[in-house]
Structure formats: structure tokens, C-alpha cells
Design goal:
26% of the residues lie in helices and 48% in strands. It is an alpha+beta fold. Strands 2-1-6-5-4-3 form a 6-stranded mixed sheet. Strand 3 and strand 4 form a beta hairpin. It is globular and about 30 Å long.
Length: 108
């Protein structure tokens, strides 16, 4: 399944599963938006602060179960495991060139 995930999402997911904070940060545009179940974070500073405890800082593993690509949007569904939250989750990525402009996280 990993072969079907386009860049930059494939590198982003590798960074998440390896808990590589710098690679995670570098995946986003400077003005990126993350919507984590309605909690909206705008810009790298807010995303980094949130990630420190609720994302990369929670030692996550995402086991991807499906990938859907349509019109510059990549949707991933998988089993999310971390010290912060667990369970089936979906991630929608809007891309801007080789970076992520937006990520929306919801129940999978």
C-alpha cells in the first residue's frame, strides 16, 4: 500500500511513524492549516506546539489501510496508535507542490 501514497504524503507518514519531528515540520507550507477533529491550527508555530504533545510527541504509529487520490487531495485511512489517542482515523491532505497545505483529521 505504501507504494500508492504520493509525495509529500509518503514522506510525511514515514516521519510520523519514525517520530522524526524535523521531517514532520518540513512537510508543511509556512501557512499550513491542521484541523484535528475541529481544533484548528494555523501556521507552523501552532502546528509544532500541537504536535509536541498530541502528534509526534505522542509516539504515534499509523497503519494505513486505504488511500484515495483525487484532484490534488490525498485521503488516508488507517489505524492510529499513540499515547494521546487511538483508533481508526482518516487524514485528508491538500497539497501545494512538494508540501502539505492542509491536513484534516477525523474518525476513520
Amino acid at each position: 500500500m505504501a507504494d500508492s501514497i504520493p509525495e509529500p504524503v509518503a514522506s510525511f507518514l514515514a516521519a510520523v511513524n519514525a517520530h522524526r519531528e524535523t521531517a514532520f515540520d518540513e512537510s508543511f507550507t509556512a501557512d499550513a492549516v491542521v484541523d484535528d477533529w475541529g481544533k484548528v491550527l494555523t501556521g507552523l508555530d501552532q502546528i509544532k506546539d500541537w504536535s509536541a504533545t498530541e502528534f509526534i510527541g505522542s509516539s504515534p504509529i499509523l497503519d494505513v489501510t486505504s488511500v484515495d487520490i483525487e484532484d490534488g487531495t490525498v485521503a488516508i485511512t488507517g489505524d492510529w496508535r499513540s499515547s494521546h489517542a487511538n483508533g481508526p482515523s482518516s487524514f485528508r491532505f491538500d497539497l501545494d507542490g512538494d508540501r502539505i497545505a492542509a491536513m484534516i483529521i477525523r474518525a476513520g
